[in-house]
What does this fold into?
Amino acid sequence: MQIDLTGKRALVAGGSRGIGLAIAHCLASAGADVSICARTKGPLDQAAKELKQHGRNVLATTCDLADAAAIKSWVEQTAQQLGGIDILINNASGFGRTDDEAGWAASVQIDLMALVRACHAAIPFLEKAGGSIIHISSISGLGASVRTPPYGAIKAAVMEYTQTQALTYASKKIRVNCIAPGSIFFEGGTWDKAKRENTKLYDRILAGIPSGRFGTPEEIGRVAAFLSSDLASWVTGQTIAVDGGQSL
It folds into this structure.
């Protein structure tokens, strides 16, 4: 089966590195025009340069995803520049780890409210021709998350919101799904840092993955491309764990 997203217009929040960038690459390689946003200009510009190699329209916008007005502006400007929106990927994370005000604020504002706000801004455009929304959650939301209480709790909320949105928007031909990655390794990411600075944690997590290795961003990207395509035309309200059996 061939994933074909030719003519589709996709937004990827948090698309300058790691999972977000891999998703953007997969969408662009399947024919989609892509708009990415992130907070830091340098990595964002580099990501845009890479994505343009697919020969598609690429937009890159600096955006603080804790800022409601900035999110609305990014979505609306993208819709104007690309002529509409067909796909919205909510990937950004504040990685709230500590069970205190700062940890909860980071997760609530970025992992949850940025997602909600992006959807609210994009829905009027998605309604015009149907479309697909994909939220990136985590297997941390499937059960207890002792190391990262706010992160796990908010990622669980994202899974529930996915179901609510899917039911709400099904009649408007908008599908809403969620991907729950396991531990994903990429240069500069959480597990790259742990490998260098916290080998005990790195080794413990690796030992708990039945497949014997960390996942790659591209393995998340391919699932996102499938869910965005017509091949998944009757898939909505689902959370798909992509984790090599880690959550088992």
